[in-house]
UniProtKB/TrEMBL annotation:
Residues 139-158 are annotated as: Disordered. CDD domains: NAT_SF. This is N-acetyltransferase domain-containing protein. It comes from the Bacteria. Residues 4-150 form the N-acetyltransferase domain. Transmembrane segments: none annotated.
Length: 158
């Protein structure tokens, strides 16, 4: 049985999280903006927050990261990244199911944003019961997904 855990990120995890982002999301970032190493490192330095991020562990080894924001009316999955060597093993699904259970218990929605080019993640989120509710960002590069059912707008097709 695989043991999936979470531990608080520390400042020492910064380089691990940068390399993880490059491995897990590099192709998606490159497809939209192109991968500029220095720009990505600068962005990481701005957003890395060990006080809010958690490191995903699998059988005690680092395997990914998770950033969840508990907002007044929703749980917002700000970022989940699983290293490609650990993808396809149900780790992300299990973590998201835990968040879905927590949201249900608290009477809240689980909400997240996913890049339009990240089809694999979109499929996972749909399988877990999330729906597209909006597109946003420059050129609508992000899809907002939520457990909240989409508005019944005849012009809106998911």
């Amino acid at each position: 049985m695989t043991v999936i855990g979470l531990r608080p990120a520390t400042p020492e995890d910064s380089e691990y999280c940068f390399q993880l982002h490059k491995a897990a999301m590099g192709a998606c970032v490159a497809a939209i903006w192109g991968w500029d190493e220095q720009a990505q490192r600068d962005f990481h330095d701005r957003v890395f927050n060990p006080g809010q991020w958690q490191i995903v562990t699998v059988d005690g080894a680092d395997a990914g990261m998770l950033h969840v924001e508990h907002r007044p009316t929703e749980i917002y999955l700000a970022r989940i990244e699983i290293h490609p060597a650990h993808q396809g093993r149900g780790i992300g699904s299990r973590l998201i199911r835990d968040l879905l259970d927590q949201a249900r218990r608290q009477g809240q929605d689980l909400t997240l944003d996913v890049l339009v080019v990240n089809h694999r993640a979109q499929s996972l989120y749909r399988r877990l019961g999330l729906h597209e509710v909006a597109r946003h960002g420059e050129n609508n590069i992000k899809i907002r997904m939520s457990t909240r059912p989409p508005q019944s707008d005849p012009a809106h097709r998911s």
